[in-house]
């Protein structure tokens, strides 16, 4: 009898301030292409060097609302509860400790993978997870300088949406309907997020 395969878990880390359809489409496409059993969204902790980022609890709750309808999507509090700046090596170590049986796939957009050499302990990342770099409008996807066994790339449906633009739209009184899930639009309004910004 063949032994059951290890669960395959995608990890979508982000500030999610707010979570938008670009994040959700990327996660869904990677889940489909790599036959993942689950994608866990991991909102970052409160970065002390970025005082204008919304409270971690708001970002966590918007992520829960946005992912609730997809049975393969879950949300983890590991980075929110650890607090302080988030380092992906810590995120992956914590998730691996919770699920030692699983194989992990860390999802990054083209902009994020281009910065990976600046991440703390970046040379350790490759043994903690396989990295999947996804296309993002306005950014060149290039993984040539990264270890080929550690990273693969995937074209995902192109949605030119960023959290920065969503925040700016709310601040200027423009709608974010259809850029973020309906429940997130309502959460932003209820909690008066992004009205006043530096
Ligand atoms: P901000 O504008 O505040 O910098 P963001 O829109 O880049 O935010 P993050 O929460 O920083 O969102 O992104 C989390 C991850 O999702 C990163 O790896 C990022 O590259 C990826 N990502 C964000 N938006 C998209 C998109 N539209 N298409 C593909 N990947 C995306």
From TrEMBL:
Keywords: ATP-binding, NAD, Nucleotide-binding, Nucleotidyltransferase, Pyridine nucleotide biosynthesis, Transferase. Its EC number is 2.7.7.18. InterPro entries: Cyt_trans-like, NadD/NMNAT, Rossmann-like_a/b/a_fold. One of its GO terms (molecular function) is nicotinate-nucleotide adenylyltransferase activity. Residues 11-169 form the Cytidyltransferase-like domain. It is an enzyme of class 2 (transferase). It catalyses: nicotinate beta-D-ribonucleotide + ATP + H(+) = deamido-NAD(+) + diphosphate. It comes from the Bacteria. Pathway: Cofactor biosynthesis; NAD(+) biosynthesis; deamido-NAD(+) from nicotinate D-ribonucleotide: step 1/1. NCBIfam families: cyt_tran_rel, nicotinate (nicotinamide) nucleotide adenylyltransferase, PRK00071.1-3. Catalyzes the reversible adenylation of nicotinate mononucleotide (NaMN) to nicotinic acid adenine dinucleotide (NaAD). Belongs to the NadD family. This is Probable nicotinate-nucleotide adenylyltransferase. It comes from Microbacterium pullorum.
């Amino acid at each position: 009898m063949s032994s059951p395969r290890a669960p395959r878990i995608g990890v979508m880390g982000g500030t999610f301030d707010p979570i938008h359809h670009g994040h959700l489409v990327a996660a869904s496409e990677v889940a489909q292409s790599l036959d993942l059993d689950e994608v866990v969204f991991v909102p970052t902790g409160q970065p002390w060097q970025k005082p204008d980022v919304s409270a971690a609890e708001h970002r966590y709750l918007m992520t829960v609302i946005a992912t609730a309808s997809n049975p393969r999507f879950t949300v983890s509090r590991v980075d929110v509860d650890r607090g302080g700046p988030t380092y992906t090596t810590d995120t992956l170590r914590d998730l691996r400790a919770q699920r030692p049986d699983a194989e992990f796939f860390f999802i990054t957009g083209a902009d994020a993978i281009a910065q990976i050499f600046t991440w703390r302990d970046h040379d350790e990342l490759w043994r903690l997870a396989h990295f999947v770099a996804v296309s993002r409008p306005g950014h060149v996807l290039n993984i040539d300088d990264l270890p080929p066994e550690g990273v693969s790339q995937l074209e995902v449906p192109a949605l030119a949406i960023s959290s920065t633009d969503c925040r700016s739209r709310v601040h200027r009184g423009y709608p974010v309907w259809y850029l973020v899930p309906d429940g997130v639009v309502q959460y932003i309004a209820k909690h008066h997020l992004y009205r006043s910004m530096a």
